[in-house]
Structures are given as structure tokens and as C-alpha cells.
Amino acid sequence: MAERMVGKQAPRFEMDAVLANKEFGKVSLEENMKNDKWTVLFFYPMDFTFVCPTEITAMSDRYDEFEDLDAEVIGVSTDTIHTHLAWINTDRKENGLGDLHYPLAADTNHVVSRDYGVLIEEEGVALRGLYIINPEGELMYSVVNHNNIGRDVDETLRVLQALQTGGLCPANWKPGQKTL
Q1: Where does the Thioredoxin domain lie (predicted)?
Q2: How many CB atoms lie within 10 A of CB 142?
Q3: Which end of the chain is more exposed for a tag (fewer CB within 10 A), N or C?
């Protein structure tokens, strides 16, 4: 039986990544916590596929909105940083990513994907999991999609804003509306 993660401390991670400036570096939950940032951590199956670039570029195109909410976005797959960089260096018109405003991390040993419960063991790829973690390291939101279905950036931003109100947000709550 799966163990509940929401409301508990999120699994800590540190991964190699291609940073927004296209340099290789590291990303970690601890660093985001130290900087008092929310973390939007999302997993995708693999580079050079069809649904993934639509999500990754949509998140990047809206990155300023995440930044305004004191949130760091991190994309993760089980591909290498070298494959990530090749995909970033491929133009969007050619099914590439082009420049991104946040890092893509490489979970090549599958530890982080496994810790977050999204690893498809027999394929060595991750499901489309998205997690929102508060600055104290508590996992506040979790959603996992089938790999055929892309995620909605509007909904991710809405949930992040709802979590940041600290109040009770009713169904269909939108930013600017009253909480309960």
C-alpha cells in the first residue's frame, strides 16, 4: 500500500542539473528551503518526446509568475544533463526546448523519482508527477498524471497561490477571492 506524502516532510534531494544559464550545476530542496522559497518540482518521462516539451516550455513561459510567488521550479527526468542540454539547445520549432528560465535536473540513478513515487521501474522513466513544497520542506500538494496527459500551468499557479493564502480555499477558488 502506498504511503501518504502530503502533509509530511518532502524527500530531500540534490541532483545534477542544467541551470537556466545552460551551465551544469546542482539543485537541491535544502537550498530552496535555505532561501525561504517554495519548490515546484515536476517530473516528466524523457527528453525529445512529444507532450513533455509542451509542459516544459509552458512552465518556462510563465516562470516570472512563479518567481513573483517566491517559488523555484525544477523539472526532472531520468535522462542525463547532457541530453537535457542537447534538448535545450534545440530550437522549439524542431521539437526542442530553446532557452528555459529554470533548471532541468537529471535523476539518472532514479532515487528521487522512486522517493516521490513516480518511477516506472520496468521502463526507467518517471510518470508526470508534480509536487509543491513549502519553504519549511513540507509537501503540500501532489498530483500524478498518466504520461499521455500534459499538466495545466494555470492550475499549478492557482494551487500555489491557494496554499500561500494559509486559509481554507473552496472549490473553484481563484486568486483574489475570499477564503473561508
Answers
A1: 4-165
A2: 19
A3: N
CA distance 52 to 100: 13
Strands 71-77 and 104-106: parallel
Cell numbers representing residue 88 in the block: 535545450
Q: Which of 53, 164, 60, 77 has the alpha carbon at shortest distance from 129?
A: 77
pTM, to two decimals: 0.96
Q: Can you give the pLDDT at residue 118?
A: 97
Phi, psi of 86 (to 5 degrees): -60, -40
Strands 38-43 and 71-77 come out as: parallel
Neighbours of 110 (CB within 10 A): 15
Catalytic residues: 52
What do you get for the CA distance between the two ends of the chain, in Å?
34
Dump pLDDT digits (tens) for 91-138: 999 989 999 999 999 999 999 999 999 999 999 999 999 999 999 999
Residue 176: which H helix or E strand, with range? none
